[in-house]
# Entry
Amino acid sequence: MDVLTAPFAFEFMQRAFVAALIVGALCSTMGTYVVLRKLSFIGDGIAHASFAGIVIAYLRGFNYAFGAAIVAVITALGIGFVHRRGKISLDTSIGVLFTGAFAVGIFLMSRSQRYSVDLEGFLFGNILGVSRDDLIIVCILAAIVVLCVAVLYRPLLYTSFDPVVAQASGINAAFVDYVLLVLLALTIIISLQSVGIVLVAALLVTPAAAAAQLTRRFVPMLVLSGAIGTFCSVGGLYLSYYLSSASGATIVILATLIFFAALALRRRSA
Amino acid sequence: MNAILVRDLVVRYSARVTALNGVTLSVDTGVALGVVGPNGSGKSTLLKSIAGLIQPTSGEVFVFGKPPRKLERGAIGYVPQIEDVDWSFPASVRDVVAMGRFPRMKTFSQFGAHDRAAVDEALAALKLGDLCNRHISELSGGQQQRTFVARALAQEPRLLLLDEPTTGVDAETEEALLHIVRGLVQDGLPVVMTTHDLDRAPEWFDRLIVVDHKVLADGDPETVLASGSYAAIREHTHTHGHTRTTP
# Structure
């Protein structure tokens, strides 16, 4: 039992575990939509784009997370707009907008003489440095995302499979797409601070991709993906405590191993 | 009241591509309307315009007296050509047919007895009962087509639009579809369907139109076929390799 409880002796570890639990469950559940809609690039994209928001927030002197969230949501809506109105594929639209926004961030930073934002900390996050206030914001935003997904559950599922027929039957597919992009933007921003870009991108894709190897039904995939994501983040954090390794990297490696195990399992049963 | 009213419909995809160039058409309830025409003649565009999926460049489309997007959810059942979706999506045949109920359901309402009954009935009508737990990637083309039609039926639509449902399907599927279309029409539903199968048009349809960017012929199937207007376009297509947009 000591093995399981030992890390909890430290308050920062308690907070880290709660953050890992929420971020892991949220990202991997939303990841089901990311994988099914072939949006694997979006985690990386929106996370980088939000860098511009952080620089602007720094220069103007307001909250970083707020700045990042605003730019992330605007970028997400822009991705949807360019995709729909410009009739350009989603991955291209993501590619254009995220690099554009990221470049704006770098541009603004390079013009500022007094710049000292810790870019590395932003890109890679630090789950062990999550504060009590961070945790409260994470909880509130996570609750909003879960509520919206619950309300839009059926339209989200239908438009993920067959947007054209869903639209013909009276569902506003464009609206559903925009809401999903905004929810993904919020999910990514919530997670970014605690776990960083690489881990967000991994948690949005790997657990859902692993779940897809193990089941061919939607609801089991959603649940399994959430379970794998939660297990990886909490389990990875434990491992990193005992291995004295970087927590984010340990979580990603664990998720990747589970993906390959799932792939092997499917190939054996096929 | 007309089920469908299309007035001077023009759909232009770009400066050079005009799919429909002034189509006027009205369809009554309880009528199966067949739409024939060569590839690229605007048949699918006409269906999509009626389904409210395409904004007309000019002209108007009314379904039950309203623009299609203003109708209540679930009013229009649209069956596209089957290659348009990802068949590896995690869903069984029953899951896909059940999606037909989604537009009819309130946000937090449970999948109720009536929803289940509508799904079961649709599965039975398309002879998919034995396949209902199968993953959709394990279906033949005809079975995929029947799954799509079953989904549209489960929706309990007031208008059914079918885009070439008999292309590339087995005889069993074709017979099942014919039976269903005739049954729906008898119940008073309007059905609009595109097809390449001219020979059987009189069995399927009460009325047939020949479309090549415009309505070239319109009437009961026997008369339209006898008039040779479709043969004329086919001849043109054959000799020139493509059809020309009438300016």
User: Anything to note?
Assistant: The CA atoms of residues 67 and 185 of chain A lie 13 Å apart. Chain A touches chain B at residues 36, 151, 154-155, 157-158, 160-162, 164-171, 212, 215-218, 220-221 (CB under 8 Å).
